Amino acid sequence: MSHIDAPRPAAFHRRFRRCDLNLLVTLDALFAEDGNVTRTADRLAISQSAASHALSRLREVFRDELFVRAGPRMVPTAFAMRLKPMIYEWIEGAERVLITAQPFDLRHAHSRLVVSVPEQIERMVMPPLMEHLFDVAPDIEIFVTPLPLGETLDALDAGQIDLAIAIGDAEFKPWHVAVLACETSFVQVYDPRLINGARPLKLECIALLPHLKVSYEPARNIVVDGYFERHGLTRRIAAGCAGAASVARMVAARPLVAILPALVARSFPQSAQLAVEPFGDDSLSLRVYVAWHRRSDRDDAHAYVRRCLARYLDDDYVQG
């Protein structure tokens, strides 16, 4: 572990909190004015007595005169000369932290982000994101890892991922930020050549058909199962898969029906032979969030990528 990651002891912070760091600013100004208190006061826009008092306090803190008279002028002591480069570096660092606000330069932004994107929608959001970043921010690197919803927040907390697309409501904590990107309805996908019946299929008929369940967590009671249960029905799961890439081929090979979010259905190739029909009523929908840990709020590259992802998930973008 590097020294920057090693926490300082609490005693250090308690002791350091009592220090008046403005005294170091005064000392830097005294160096700039060759120890002249009057000119230092003008530089700091304070009274001469305040500058003189600050110099007295500095002498007490460092137990050194710091500046002594040599004829008509003041000269720094040997101890003050040893302090000078350290005070200069401290002021430079403070300026970078507190004062200097460089505008975010997307073209030269360097960042490496690990993003959890469900496999069901990876094909929809990642190609346009990667193409866009290649053009406008070539040094922002994106690595995708699909995680089940139940593992996503822990991975954010542990720093294993930087950003996530979460399909469905999760137990977000106060230190998470979750922006609602869209709310998607559901569709039923099947091959009408393999499944007989009047179209669109009725809910009672659909429940009797063998189902292809699209989920990372097959044992989980997803919202579709709950919808059937609310109508006194239970669907029969005959097969399962984690992503949408194989749905079209699987329902074309066997008399299966797949019920999946309309957002997900957009990500697999459309076939004239497959029926893609609305499923359920207004009570059946799924929220899709772009989520991250608050520690990344002020990361400019991170903020840019999450805005892009939210845009690619938006209906207006997809349909436009």
Automatic annotation (TrEMBL):
Entry keyword Transcription regulation: yes
Pfam families according to UniProt: HTH_1 (PF00126), LysR_substrate (PF03466)
Source superkingdom: Bacteria
PROSITE patterns: HTH_LYSR
InterPro entries registered for this protein in UniProt: LysR-type_TF (IPR050389), LysR_HTH_N (IPR000847), LysR_subst-bd (IPR005119), WH-like_DNA-bd_sf (IPR036388), WH_DNA-bd_sf (IPR036390), YidZ_PBP2 (IPR037402)
Keyword hit for NAD: no
Domain HTH lysR-type: 20-77
Keyword set, alphabetical order: DNA-binding, Transcription, Transcription regulation
Position of the signal peptide: none
Coiled coil ranges: none
Protein family (similarity comment): Belongs to the LysR transcriptional regulatory family.
Record's protein name: LysR family transcriptional regulator
Organism: Paraburkholderia caffeinilytica
